[in-house]
Specification:
Largest sheet: 8 strands, mixed
CATH class: Alpha Beta
Distance between the termini: 89 Å
Structural class: alpha/beta
CATH topology: TIM Barrel
Oligomer: single chain
Length: 459
């Protein structure tokens, strides 16, 4: 028995040693504590243990020579749809009961491509087909596993997708011929859902207090919305126009809901003081707009104006392609707004971490935080920057020098067919409408064919 214990201890000791990593002589961009030149970072068991100069190399420690390179926190994308099998449950204006985390796709090659852009965490979101959509999942980019559970970031708060404007209107008002058909209808859908959830919570409270003999009928939808009202689920709301942003702020005030991040928020700059006063945050594009009518107007100064007004702001991708270039997107705020290096890099590190409620663990390089890093040749805000190595939980997940040319996980030259299917997409159509746009387009095309038929046939 003693021999077995000794062998077990030795095995554990070897495992711990294998998990030690030392990054040597890098220019460390901590984000929250300045820039540290010629500095080492010692990692053990996936956590940052020490940040200092001339840290000695111990036996069994993996060493990365970062001389002449820049080391920054792993980039975080607060709005993404990668690693998802499905995005929209468009069957009802309120689908709070569904969760995209039930359909994670760990072999999605977009995970690896995101790592190649220095992105270590993304917010896998439900789409915007519903006024109140499904719950989202914060994932770590641990590429190489076939187990979806390995992607989940343990401890990350629950989040849920709301949507305002054209997407829920055309999905339900135009597509399903039900409410909401207008922007005021979207507001009422949200108000009705909150009101029903509050009645549901009271009914259960009365039952537990013995004031009611019969228990209420269980509803996962109302349970979820009840958790929003209690402050246990963070709202991330698809929005564009300033008027609808103000509308939702008023609704949330009426129900005493305080945690909200407005996604896209192309007109957020118009109501930046109001967002700051409420304590709302915003996750925006650097310079995308005019790709549909409700996004007709915006400005590349949006992120800078929001930042200067005290709004916690991030820049996101909403794209499996743009996610590889978020450091370029952040750099645009120095051209449009003169943000400092730390302010610009905060848009893709500590600020999205705050919006997802995970800044205790990630978003900056500090002792005790997760060992998530992106190592660059060239300053990450330079147009010439090239990611070299990306590290998640102390493990190298991307290495530009060592990785194979083809990193897809399910390619087998012996197989006649592969499970891997890569779908092309353009940035003009938001990924928030995946699975719904196709249906709407099919219906529109069918209507068009019927119209042509009617023009050519009298019977």
């Amino acid at each position: 028995m003693l021999k077995v214990k000794i062998i077990l201890l030795l095995s554990i000791s070897g495992l711990l040693q294998a998990q030690q990593l030392l990054i040597k002589n890098g220019t460390v961009l901590t984000i929250t504590r300045g820039v540290k030149e010629n500095t080492d970072i010692f990692v053990s068991n996936g956590k940052i243990q020490r940040i200092d100069k001339n840290i000695p190399i111990t036996s069994g420690t993996e060493v990365i020579d970062a001389t002449g390179l820049f080391v920054m926190p792993g980039i975080i994308d607060a709005h993404s749809h990668i690693a998802l099998d499905v995005v929209n449950e468009g069957t009802n204006p309120v689908t709070a009961e569904v969760n995209v985390g039930d359909a994670l796709d760990p072999i999605d090659i977009s995970i690896y491509r995101a790592l190649a852009g220095g992105v270590t965490i993304s917010h896998a979101m439900h789409g915007s087909a519903n006024a109140i959509g499904g719950q989202c999942e914060t994932i770590k980019h641990r590429y190489g596993t076939f187990n979806p559970d390995d992607l989940r970031m343990v401890g990350a708060p629950r989040t849920i997708k709301f949507a305002l404007g054209e997407n829920p209107i055309r999905t339900h008002g135009e597509g399903n011929k039900i409410m909401p058909k207008t922007r005021m209808g979207v507001e009422q859908v949200i108000r009705n859902a909150f009101s029903e959830a509050m009645i549901y919570l009271k009914d259960w409270d009365d039952y537990h207090k013995g004031l009611s003999k019969n228990s209420p009928e269980y509803s996962l939808r109302n349970e979820t919305i009840g958790e929003i009202i209690k402050g246990n689920i963070l709202i991330h709301c698809h929005s564009y126009r300033a008027d609808e942003i103000l509308m939702l702020l008023k609704v949330l005030k009426d129900f005493n809901v305080k945690k909200v991040c407005f996604q896209h928020a192309n007109e957020g700059f118009k109501v930046a003081p109001e967002l700051a006063e409420f304590g709302a945050s915003a996750s925006v594009f650097a310079d995308w707009w005019a790709y549909k009518f409700e996004v007709y107007y915006s400005t590349a100064y949006n992120a800078s104006i929001l930042t200067r007004n005290g709004v916690v702001t991030s820049i996101n991708s909403d794209s499996e392609e743009l996610i590889r270039h978020l450091y370029h997107e952040a750099a645009k705020t120095q051209r449009y707004g003169d943000l400092t290096d730390d302010e610009a890099l905060s848009l893709i590190t500590i600020n999205p971490a705050k919006q997802l409620g995970i800044d205790t663990w990630v978003g900056s390089i500090e002792t005790g935080k997760d060992a998530d890093f992106a190592i660059f040749k060239g300053h990450p805000l330079s147009v010439y920057a090239i990611p070299q190595i990306t590290i998640v939980d102390g493990k190298v997940e991307f290495d530009i020098q060592k990785d194979q040319d083809d990193m897809r996980m399910d390619i087998n030259p012996v197989d006649k067919y592969t499970h891997f299917i890569e779908m092309g997409s353009g940035y003009q159509e938001s990924n928030c409408m995946k699975g719904v746009s196709e249906i709407l387009m099919q219906e529109s095309y069918a209507d068009f064919i019927r119209f042509l038929y009617s023009k050519n046939h009298t019977h």
